[in-house]
Amino acid sequence: MDYQGEHLLVGQLGHFSAVLSFVASLVATFAYFKATQTAAIAEVHKAWKKLARTAFIIETVAVASIMILLYVILYNHYFEYKFAYQHSNRSLPVSYLISSFWEGQEGSFMLWNLWHCVIGLVLIKTGKVWEAPVMTILSVAQVFMSTFLLGIYFFDVKIGSSPFVLMRNEYAYPIFKDPLYIQKALRDGQGLNVLLQNYWMTIHPPIVFIGFASSTIPFAFALAGLWTKKYKEWIKPALPWALFNAAFLGIGIMFGAAWAYESLTFGGYWAWDPVENASLVPWLIIIAAIHVMLLNRSTGYSSKSVFWFTFLSFLTLFYSTFLTRTGVLGDTSVHSFTGDGNSLFWHFLVIMSFFTGLFLVLYFKNSKHIPVVKKEEDISSREFWMFVGALVFLITSAYITFYTSLPLINKIFGTNKAIGEDPEYVYNRVMILIAVVLGLLTAIVQYLKYKSTPRTFWMKKIAVPTVIALVLSLLISIFGNINYTTYGLGYLGAIHVAIFASVYALVANIAYIWVGLKGKLGAAGGSVAHLGFGMMLLGILITSSKRETISINRTGIVFDWLRDPKGKEDSGMQNVTLVQGVPTPLNKYVVTYVGDTSYPGDEKKYFKVHYVWKDSIRDVIKEEFTLYPNAFLMKGEDGRTSISANPASRHYWNKDIFTFVTSLPDPESLKDTASFRHVPILAGDTVFYSNGYIIVDQLIKADKETNKDLPLVDSAWLADITVYGNNGSTFKAQPALFTKNDNPIHKRDTIMAQSLVLEVNKNGQQIELGVKESSSIMNFITLKAYMFPFINLLWLGVIITTIGTLMSAWHRARGSSKS
Amino acid sequence: MKKTHIIALILIAGAIAYMLATLSKDLTTYDTIASAQQKQGQYLHLIAKLDRSEQISYDPIENPNYLEFYAVDSLGAKTKVVYHNTKPPELEVSERIVMKGKMNGDVFECKEILLKCPSKYKDDPAVQEKAFENQMQH
Fold this sequence. Notes:
heterodimer, A: 819 residues, alpha+beta, six-stranded antiparallel β-sheet, globular, B: 138 residues, five-stranded mixed barrel, 3 helices, 7 strands, elongated
């Protein structure tokens, strides 16, 4: 049949690229394997390496082509392709087209794939003797990654899923037999999930996937070390990659947290959601691995466990992706991705089993030959405590992994367990202790020397930072008003101890840059990362223990059944209804819902919420600001409107005031029968209504030619209006009329207190003011508001940690390229 | 035995002991309405569907923290649910609801709601098919 309007060439090229990348990765694997095996024979080795490099470069080009071709499909709205149809639509701004990539899992794997290739190119350039064995492992990984995009059937098993499939091949709907099916049925796509329409979501996935892809490299070096029997030498070139991996995984996770904070409405940046845990665990383990690598480089200890740590960091990353992508988490996560669950499930199992098997075989074949230091570590040595720290990270990961894996455990053992009433506390009460231990270790261990530390030397150097940290943390504890008693005094005590530990980590590492390193910043990457980590911990402790709910509902009575057994007020009372124009006291603020606005070309509705904090005794305004939380209004299938809200925050250096809309009246219920009365107006005119009069202060006309600030509409008429009520009250209003392509767009203004709706209208050349009086306009929003103190400490800590880690990576990469 | 090994063992033993001690308290079960009614006052997870034949009552002007609706599970049992929070916007279109809370007499006092909505699962072929049919009809 001859279908009209299809663009098949792009898809065919795409399929071809996907298959090419698979074949090229197979060739690269084989050639690099041969190159490694023939390392002793220079001529043969060179020939194999040349072939391998060529194959790898072809593969890179193929993967890049997949990405470009998919972008072409999205950009040109070729909705005959399933990917474009499901993940984009015509009204999606170009800046978010990129986000469409990662809504579909094919796009995510493509990204992972692409970063593997880019990293591979860097390894070809810098790898030297390590190139062949390391690239063999990376190419094997690429064989698996490229199969994710194949979407071919091997007997009855579907392997991967292609982003280039056509709608008409995927769904056997009768309309797809029609030659004109695109014009008839696929004029527009389903669009992108509104939660992903956020700037953090354009940047978070690429960064996280750099972290994902780079986690293959330390493991590839470890395997290469076992394979080529260089049991120690691999660590030096692997270390910068491990640091690089930690930096990108870390910053990627925190970008995700920032996204959650800015656009999700669970009221925070971290909720111990499986998806978050899944990215945290590999980070914890790579940090542990880095420390074990470092101590091994300096002392030769832990020469066996370093292999295990590196292996685990790789395995947990795939395990995490397995948990979140295959749908095994099912009902436990709000945002676990689902999809081709079953085929992905086995795909991941095969990958994990393959690499686990490969590692175990290589490790146990060689373990007898791995050199070990017979003498025990001295208890005053740095390596001893570094290893303890690494173990703490490992135990933490195991704890988090256990609870995150519950749904899988249920599946295997046929149980039906779930985390109970307070999932966050299940994690937090353990993490607070871990924070204490890690804070202390981070502070102290740098002051220890490798091998053994003379007591007097150590005491002398650490005394000053200890005293400073003690004083600072006491000041925070005493004057900081930290009295989080929800979980009793024991927990509060732990918070205060953890505050000391984190301040200690911060201060001791700043001091170490001078005392230990004599201010040599080049080598200070570690200390910088550690002090950032201390700051991060402190930020987390303060924001979580001092988070205040501003919107506690004081308007109603507290019902008995809203108290939980311990007699605390239930968290369910955190929503407050604000009727438009009615100032409502919330905490120390008086909050008013002023009105809402929407803009042409923007699907969101913005709610203007005004906060004022007045000192009632001296009658001065101490704080005043306006927030614009917004929400996507989505028409459901049944004609009902649902919302997806985005928070808005007022940022101060020491706190954030955080507000989001939780509910709206159904616009249908706001429809009223009263109609507009239109009166021709000029500036200065007076219009009467039943309760007073209206003065038109100004009438402004703007159009595209005269005003460049009107990019979305053709022309606009704006009226500045003052309403004088009979009771002496005055109100300001700014109704406006926009036109686009000769279609009028009204921006009405409502004065709730006077039950008055105003609009600007144009009748021929005459501008009119529309006045509607209605008793049924009761507009309101319900919202939640929180205060997050010192959240900037957390963000700053993350940035400093990342900078420190990258400094360290750079320092070590230069060191390893010199030798 | 090396000191690091001893420490490792202590840490692992400690972690396991701690988990065993707290596990029974931390963990709860997925239940049906019938079995939840047997476990009065016990915190559990209920998987059910919105009963569309009954009214959803939510009046934010009166009280923004009170939502009442009925849920039915796959075995046909039915219960009233009270949720002291705002109405989740996609409740009406949800396909499945996971509710966390406890049974209090005939009422399920719900503390947390997770909705499974068609819009979130575009990749699911069955959902896709349905969405497509819907679009065709318009």
